[in-house]
Structure formats: C-alpha cells, structure tokens
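Please fill in the sequence for the structure shown.

STRUCTURE ENCODING:
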C-alpha cells in the first residue's frame, strides 16, 4: 500500500499537489514524445495566449506532470480533437497505471510501432487495456487516431476512479455525463455526442487527478500506515466529527493545527498508544469533519470536543493541541476544567491582546530563509481573515504554493516534512469549501480574544512546548497557575513532526 501511494504521489501529486522534484523524475521516465519537454508551460504555446487563466493553470499542472505535451514546438493543440491514443496515455498517467515502456508490439492489428503518428502510444494502449480502462473498437482494432466523444470520455474518467459507470440512460451517455459533472470532471451542459477536444480532456484529467490524489491520501488509506488505529465518526453538537483512535489507557485527545489534519501526529501516535487511548481529531472545518457556515470560534470548537468526550463516555481527559488546535485545547480546559486532567499546548497560545499588536510590516530579517532562528511574521493571519478572497485565490496549485511556502517557512529541519506529507495536508485544503471552513478559525480571532477575558485562569496542570516564538510563555504566565514551558532547540513550528521523540518523551512524562 505504501508503494502504491508513493507512485501516485509522483504523478497525481504532481498534478494536484505539485512537487516539482518528483514530477521531473516521473516525466523523465514516462514521456515518449520528443516534440515538447514536460518542463514547458502554457506561455510557450502560441495557441494558449488567449486561454483563460484558470485553464492555463490546469494545463501548466498537466505539462509539469508529463501528462500532456504540445502537438508541436509552439502549439499545444487546445482546440484539436483528442485521439484515442492520446486518451490512453492520459488515462494511464492520471490513474497510476503501470506502463511497461519496453512494449513495442500491440495486441491490436491496427497499432504498429512503425506508425509515426501513433506508434509511441503502444505501451500506454496496452497498459490501459490490461487495466480495463479502455478497449478496442473491435477485438482486433483500436483505431488509435480515432476521435473520442464526450460521452466516452466521461465513461473512461468515471471508471478510472473506481466508480460504477451508469450507462442505463437514454441516450446511453446521459447518466454517465451526469456522474462526470457531479465529480467536476466535465462542465454543466456537456453533450455526450460531441467530439472531445484537448481542452475537454485537460479539464477532465485535472479533475480526475485531484480526485485520484485525494483517494490516495484518504483517511482509509492513511490509517493503514498506523497499525492498531481506526477511523471513527461521531455526530456531536450538531456536527459530524472525524477522528482516528487507537491504544489503551487513559484518554489523550490530540488537536491538530492549520493547514494540517489528524495525520500531523502520525509520528507520535504509535508510541503514545502504548500508554494512552489516543484520539487524533479533525475538529469542525478540518479534514473529513463537517464544514458548516458558522461555529469556528474556539469556544464553540471546544464545546464540540467536550460533547465528543461525553459521547465517548469519559468524564475527564488529557488534551494536547498544536497551532489552532492549541487554541481550542486552551478554550476546552478553560470552559471545562472539571473535564480536563492535564493540558499540553504546542507552540501557539489562545488568541489574546498581543494578537492585536502584530505589526503591518515585518521585521527586516523575517524573510531571511537562510537563518532558521529568524523572527517569524504570520502574514497569513490577515489573509485568512478576509471574507471570500482566499477561496477565490487559493485553489489547487495556488493553495499548494502558499501552504508549502508556509510549511517551509516555519520548518527548522526541512527534511522532517516530506513532499508527500505536504501533499497529504494540501489535499484537505484545496477546494473553496475547505478553504472557507478553515479560514473560519482565523475570522473569529477577535471574538476569541473577547472570550478569553471571560475565562478564569487555568488551574489544571499545563505543559507548554515551544519550537518557535509565538508568545506561548508570556501567555501562560498570565493565564495559568500551574504550568511549565519547554523550548525545544533546533525545532520549528511543526513540533510533533520535527522532533517526535522529544514530543513523545515530554508527553509521557507530563501526562503520566
């Protein structure tokens, strides 16, 4: 299973998550056309000059991944019809089908290696046929230069995602077109009888690769990496929450931060499960949990967690949170001290008056990336608070660029978070709904600051673990009576991933 995910990462992640290093390696081994390098962008093709920006982004992603080439050095062929040979190649690449590039003979009589137009496609045609993605027009004829209708394209894309294709309608493609539209593979109003252009298959391939990557990084797949853990769901406080649980002992609730999910604790969960019953939770707006229009203030998020605690049959639990999760964890302990045994806060305090003093302009050294000990400037606090704008700006590749920059900006040891780790997180933050929901955590900061003033000082034991400089120590001095702060050396913001062994050690010592 891990091997399968890694392979998908090199193609689907290149399209959906955009890891240029793995893309280059993959494109070098799978691209057979000599006309255009996979490193080209839409700017290199004359016929893409007037194409809208959204389609250009998708074309750039597919070029980068080696899924597409131009029809010549200067022309992409955006308005040309898609051939069956080209469709076979696209299908194998976006759906992670193993292609044996040494295959030079086709099982179809009309596909010849000597054919300059279509001979290059033999390995892809045979791989797609073997995988059951595509068949010949007859048993012996593939018709590699033949056209593909939009109905046929819809059928191929939907089937490639492992979904049951519905061809029971009249005409036969009516229902499968509807399936493809619902999956955002084709546009509303698509006529299944029309011939598919390369623009159509760009749209379809981009959407399918996103879905394939999400499937590869689904909770069901990721939890397989953690033996003894299972996915669970509970509806509490009017929202469905997803969490992953495993282990035996006292309950330990883990609350992740932005832009991550329950998986951010994957390096520490197995060892912690030897001592505690571990729950890593996607709270409201995160991952596979519900994303309602409201309720993203930390007081309400904490109420969700408290309802989950009661639903699971506990009276008192240990809670640890990172980043936004640290804010929620504090709000939980402040509102429900009787339901809190101990609290651990990783790197970030609850929103407080100091947040109102964050300057508009950064310190001169804030972007000196060569200095891992530099001061950090959280400019995304402001961006994520703007109503509606991030949802428009940050989708797909654009979101990945921003999130990957933020990951690297706050990492001390960049090797501690892999390209695949980032891709897993990005898969949960690349749609307008996901961006809108997660930004709700930032839009409520002023309410959170006001709510803090209504809480009593924490009396429960608190462990603060600081890897960066977000002001956790002074916050706890003002808002807790029984606390200890440990600052980890050579550790950035992503504490449980950058320094898992020390995190495990501190947790076990504190929560025992």
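FILLED IN BY: designer on duty
SEQUENCE:
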């Amino acid at each position: 299973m891990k091997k399968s995910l890694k392979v998908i990462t090199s193609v689907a992640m290149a399209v959906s998550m955009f890891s240029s290093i793995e893309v280059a390696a993959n494109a070098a081994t799978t691209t057979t056309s000599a006309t255009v390098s996979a490193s080209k962008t839409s700017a290199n093709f004359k016929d893409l000059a007037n194409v809208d920006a959204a389609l250009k982004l998708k074309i750039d992603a597919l070029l980068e991944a080696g899924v597409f080439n131009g029809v010549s050095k200067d022309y992409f062929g955006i308005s040309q019809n898609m051939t069956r040979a080209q469709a076979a190649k696209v299908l194998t690449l976006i759906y992670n089908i193993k292609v044996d590039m040494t295959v030079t003979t086709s099982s179809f009589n009309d596909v010849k290696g000597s054919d300059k137009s279509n001979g290059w496609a033999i390995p892809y045609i045979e791989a797609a046929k073997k995988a059951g993605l595509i068949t010949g027009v007859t048993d012996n004829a593939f018709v590699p230069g033949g056209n593909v209708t939009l109905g046929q394209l819809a059928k191929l894309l939907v089937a490639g995602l492992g979904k049951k294709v519905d061809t029971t309608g009249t005409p036969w493609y009516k229902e499968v077109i509807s399936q493809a539209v619902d999956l955002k593979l084709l546009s509303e109003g698509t006529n299944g009888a029309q011939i598919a252009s390369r623009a159509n298959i760009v749209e379809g391939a981009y959407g399918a690769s996103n879905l394939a990557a999400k499937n590869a990084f689904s909770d069901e797949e990721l939890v397989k990496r953690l033996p003894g853990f299972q996915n669970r769901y509970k509806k509490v406080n009017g929202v469905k929450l997803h969490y992953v649980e495993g282990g035996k002992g006292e309950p330990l609730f883990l609350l992740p931060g932005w832009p991550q999910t329950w998986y951010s604790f994957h390096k520490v969960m197995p060892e912690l499960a030897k001592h505690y019953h571990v729950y890593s939770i996607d709270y409201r707006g995160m991952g596979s949990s519900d994303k309602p229009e409201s309720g993203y203030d930390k007081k309400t998020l904490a109420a969700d967690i408290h309802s989950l605690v009661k639903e699971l049959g506990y009276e008192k639990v240990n809670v640890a949170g990172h980043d936004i999760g640290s804010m929620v964890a504090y709000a939980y302990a402040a509102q429900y001290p009787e339901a809190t045994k101990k609290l651990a806060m990783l790197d970030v305090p609850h929103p407080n008056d100091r947040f109102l003093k964050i300057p508009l302009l950064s310190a001169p050294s804030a972007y000196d990336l060569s200095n891992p000990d530099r001061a950090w400037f959280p400019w995304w606090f402001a961006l994520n608070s703007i109503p509606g704008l991030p949802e428009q700006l940050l989708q797909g590749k654009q979101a990945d660029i921003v999130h990957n920059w933020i990951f690297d900006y706050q990492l001390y040891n960049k090797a501690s978070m892999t390209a695949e780790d980032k891709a897993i997180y990005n898969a949960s933050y690349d749609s307008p709904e996901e961006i809108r929901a997660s930004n709700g955590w930032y839009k409520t900061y002023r309410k959170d600051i006001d709510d803090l003033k209504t809480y009593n000082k924490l009396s429960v034991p608190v462990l603060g673990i600081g890897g960066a400089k977000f002001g956790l120590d002074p916050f706890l001095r003002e808002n807790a009576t029984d606390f200890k702060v440990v600052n980890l050396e050579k550790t950035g913001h992503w504490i449980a991933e950058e320094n898992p062994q020390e995190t495990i050690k501190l947790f076990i010592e504190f929560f025992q």
